[in-house]
């Protein structure tokens, strides 16, 4: 399977965007990116497989200004 998504990561306080495959109590990182990538939208894509029920979770962390 494949998940396709758009993301925008701009500014000095941008932290990390992570996509997880959640099966039961297990979180498996599918994709992760950190830092400033400019004032534009990007297309992200990742593949995964699962034979059990699952959830796809997006987690974003914003860093504090220095």
From TrEMBL:
InterPro entries: ConA-like_dom_sf (IPR013320), MAM_dom (IPR000998), MAM_domain-containing (IPR051560). It comes from the Eukaryota. Residues 1-66 form the MAM domain. Transmembrane segments: none annotated. GO terms for cellular component: membrane. This is MAM domain-containing protein. It comes from Dreissena polymorpha.
């Amino acid at each position: 399977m494949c998940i396709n998504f758009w993301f925008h990561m701009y500014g000095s306080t941008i932290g990390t965007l992570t996509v997880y495959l959640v099966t039961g109590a297990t979180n498996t990182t599918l994709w992760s990116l950190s830092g400033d990538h400019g004032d534009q939208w990007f297309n992200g894509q990742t593949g995964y497989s699962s034979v059990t029920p699952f959830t796809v979770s997006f987690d974003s962390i914003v860093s504090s200004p220095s």
